[in-house]
Write a sequence for this structure.
């Protein structure tokens, strides 16, 4: 019998702890398939965040480090400076990357640190039970914005790719979504470009992936995918912001 | 031993670290440790090493974590307020069983405090370099030569016991110039089969982690780590006894303060007071047995520190009531003079 589909070897057999309908599973698959297809699993080192993906070290087959909240880009910097020929990526959520870890994110980007960041933006703190994230939308109801996010009081959501695209060290920045098969395919292509940029030593690369949190959004998985499309994409437009993959090595 | 160099303490820290095989340094500017970073910035490019100025102390210690996880000798350096920022990362490094060396060139505090020498971070260094049940090996050198002699050992022990080591210096040691000789031995790097180097499809994946959600699992990990700490306590205590053999009165002091105390002890001896000094070189592990024996030998002990009295807690725990323990200290960046310490010794001996 011909094998037409099998799980990538870059994911372990460990069952994940993610909630039903959460899109972390899809994103893990896309990252793992990319590592597999590029043939770099043996030399890849991943950095797990604090947040829902805290136990990503059990799910990816490559060597892994678990970092403190927001510090994954600093840990990745240390790993990469020690082993510049390895492939180093971080996998971070919105609270981790755009709130407590903003300095680490911005400065690893402006240094042109030759690492890849997989940024999962689901507009909420998932693991702690649904508090306002730096990327929660205006008016969005969360545990800590029970009357809806009032931007005059809590400020505005951060558009990470747009902010980072102003920095000279960034080689690749793209925002994608995983709400339908067409977008999932585009997300995979962006992740592959980001890893390729690193392998070609072009500098900092980031893929922001709009993702769902049915549990904390209080929606069914299908309605969560629709909510992402109707609410998140208008505020966080999909597309490429920086692509220096065609340029020569810095 | 070979050539003698006249070097600032901070520069000697950097040179000794490089000679100990440290090729990865992550720092952030702060007085009075600045020359450590400046020296690294100058030397690292020449030896194919990394000097990286981080965006914060928080980032610098996490870069150390990453480099240590990847298996290299990594170091960071700061002064008191900056060490407070590093404590989050130090706790993660300890919880992940990673070796590294951290320099604290102590200055007056709390808060922004001042920039003159101090020993007010003793409690932090020996009790609370971050949240949780853990220890860090803490060396307290009292000369530039001793910094050099201890730095290689700090890396060796950090690797042997898979835990962070700290060099607890102060603004006086960091800024003073003294002649130093560097050891000519090549550093012996430990094997690190646990490091994240990329598994090259030849072994299962390595995971560097401090998260254990099952309480009994976490308890077991911590208890086993403390068994390692017991080994450190058994094997690695360092101290110096000065004029202590026939002493009827004792002083306990460490670091730069111990130098002042030595002068005062000499002057007191000239006046006929039989006083000696016990100088802890490791403050964790603390020389408990040696201080206890000293307490049994003498009529009284005097602790001299550049703080309001922090190491005195360890001295009192060690002597466990067997003799009175008095205190003399200056704080805020004020260095006690030999005359002041002599007066305190004379008071004790009354």
């Amino acid at each position: 019998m011909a094998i037409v589909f099998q799980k990538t070897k870059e994911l372990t057999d460990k069952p994940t702890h993610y909630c039903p309908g959460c899109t972390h599973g899809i994103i893990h698959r896309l990252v793992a398939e990319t590592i597999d297809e590029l043939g770099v699993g043996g030399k890849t080192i991943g950095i797990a965040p604090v947040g829902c993906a805290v136990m990503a070290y059990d799910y990816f087959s490559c060597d892994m480090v678990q970092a403190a909240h927001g510090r994954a880009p600093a840990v990745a910097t240390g790993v990469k400076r020690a082993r510049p020929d390895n492939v180093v990526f971080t996998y971070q959520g919105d609270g981790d990357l755009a709130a407590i870890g903003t300095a680490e994110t911005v400065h690893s980007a402006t240094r042109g640190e030759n690492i890849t960041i997989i940024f999962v933006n689901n507009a909420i703190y998932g693991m702690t039970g649904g508090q306002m994230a730096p990327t929660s939308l205006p008016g969005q109801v969360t545990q800590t914005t029970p009357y809806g996010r009032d931007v005059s009081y809590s400020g505005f959501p951060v558009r990470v790719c747009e902010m980072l695209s102003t920095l000279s060290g960034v080689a690749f920045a793209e925002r994608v979504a995983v709400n339908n098969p067409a977008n999932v395919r585009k997300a995979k292509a962006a992740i592959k470009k980001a890893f390729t940029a690193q392998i070609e030593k072009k500098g900092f690369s980031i893929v922001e992936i709009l993702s769902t949190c049915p549990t904390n959004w209080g929606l069914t998985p299908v309605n969560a995918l629709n909510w992402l499309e109707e609410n998140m994409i208008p505020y966080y437009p999909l597309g490429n912001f920086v692509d220096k993959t065609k340029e020569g090595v810095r | 031993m070979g050539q003698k160099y006249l070097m600032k303490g901070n520069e000697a820290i950097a040179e000794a670290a490089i000679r100990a095989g440290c090729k990865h340094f992550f720092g952030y500017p702060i007085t009075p440790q600045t020359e450590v970073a400046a020296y690294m910035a100058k030397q690292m490019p020449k030896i194919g090493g990394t000097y990286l100025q981080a965006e914060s102390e928080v980032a610098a210690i996490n870069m150390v974590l990453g480099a240590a996880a990847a298996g290299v000798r990594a170091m960071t350096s700061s002064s008191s307020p900056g060490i407070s920022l590093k404590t989050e990362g130090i706790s993660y490094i300890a919880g992940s069983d990673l070796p590294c060396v951290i320099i604290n060139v102590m200055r007056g505090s709390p808060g922004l405090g001042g920039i003159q020498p101090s020993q007010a971070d003793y409690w932090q260094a020996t009790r609370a370099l971050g949240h949780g049940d853990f220890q860090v090996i803490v060396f307290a050198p009292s000369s530039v030569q001793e910094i050099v002699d201890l730095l290689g050992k700090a890396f060796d022990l950090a690797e042997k016991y898979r835990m962070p080591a700290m060099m607890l210096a102060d603004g006086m040691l960091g800024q003073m110039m003294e002649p130093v000789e560097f050891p000519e031995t090549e550093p012996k790097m430990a094997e690190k089969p646990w490091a994240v180097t990329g598994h090259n499809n030849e072994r299962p994946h390595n995971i560097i982690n401090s998260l254990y959600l099952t309480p009994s699992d976490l308890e077991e990990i911590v208890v086993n780590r403390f068994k390692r700490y017991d080994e450190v306590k058994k094997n690695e205590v360092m101290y110096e006894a000065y004029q202590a053999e026939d002493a009827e009165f004792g002083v306990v002091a460490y670091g730069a303060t111990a130098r002042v105390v030595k002068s005062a002890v000499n002057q007191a001896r000239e006046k006929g007071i039989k006083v000696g000094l016990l100088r802890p070189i490791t403050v964790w592990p603390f020389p408990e047995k040696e201080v206890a024996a000293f307490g049994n030998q003498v009529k009284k002990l005097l602790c001299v520190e550049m703080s309001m009295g922090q190491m005195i807690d360890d001295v009192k725990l060690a002597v466990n009531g067997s003799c009175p323990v008095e205190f003399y200290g200056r704080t805020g960046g004020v260095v006690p003079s030999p005359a002041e310490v002599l007066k305190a010794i004379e008071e004790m001996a009354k």
Observations:
- The first strand of chain A starts at residue 44 and ends at 48.
- Chain A has a mean pLDDT of 97.
- Residues 181-199 of chain A form the longest helix (19 residues).
